[in-house]
């Protein structure tokens, strides 16, 4: 009986660890300059200087001003009811989330940094250009004036990255990095690992 209780306790602990691992991830860091100057027309040049007007975190990069709750405006607001990117405002002294709209967003500059999973040959759909440092490889697509899709030709994996986007060409505002998502924190990965080891130990005990 004691052995059964021990086995059940180990199973429950493993399940808890696995559930914890699924729920937590390191978010992508975002910064916004509003309004930006002419640098917004070329994301490859970098931020327009000075501190950003607002900072936030997101779990994914996916907005399109013509697509329901994924629109540019709802994405910036980060409202819980329509927040598929998991946007959380960290610093917003100018109350951009309640006053910033696509119609007045001309010349705005975004920068995203962090660690995320990128699928193979990731597709990035955008309308105003982007610049991306993906693990030391530079992809410079700074100049389109219509919504297009660029394929990066990268290998799948977890990368540190910096992505810059200039919202300077009016409607539509589009930035869709398809399949790119934040990754579990290191401690979460350890918990998952311990959980898997616990499951493996239980199987060995049952076989013996």
Would you mind describing this structure in some detail?
This protein is an alpha+beta fold. It folds into two domains: 1-24 and 187-208; 26-183, Jelly Rolls. The protein is built from four helices and twelve strands, in the order αβββαβαββββββββα. The strands form two sheets. Strands 1, 2, 4, 5, 7, 8, 10 and 12 form an eight-stranded antiparallel sheet that branches. The chain has a four-stranded antiparallel sheet with strand order 3-11-6-9, with no helix packed on it. α1 runs antiparallel to α4. The longest helix has 22 residues, at 2-23.
Secondary structure blueprint with pairings:
Layout: H1 2-23, E1 28-33, E2 54-58, E3 62-64, H2 72-77, E4 88-91, H3 96-99, E5 108-118, E6 123-126, E7 130-134, E8 137-141, E9 148-151, E10 157-167, E11 174-177, E12 181-182, H4 186-207
Antiparallel strand pairs: 1-2, 1-5, 2-4, 3-11, 5-10, 5-12, 6-9, 6-11, 7-8, 7-10
Helix pairs in contact: 1-4
Please tag this protein with its features.
single chain, 4 helices, four-stranded antiparallel sheet, Jelly Rolls, alpha+beta, 2 domains, eight-stranded antiparallel sheet, 208 residues
According to DSSP, the number of beta strands is 12
Rg for CA atoms = 21 Å
Query: Based on the structure given, which CATH architecture of the largest domain is correct?
Result: Sandwich
- Helix/strand order: HEEEHEHEEEEEEEEH
Largest sheet: 8 strands, antiparallel
Number of helices: 4
How would you summarize what this structure contains?
The protein is built from 4 helices and 12 strands; from the N terminus they run αβββαβαββββββββα. The protein has 208 residues and is of the alpha+beta class.
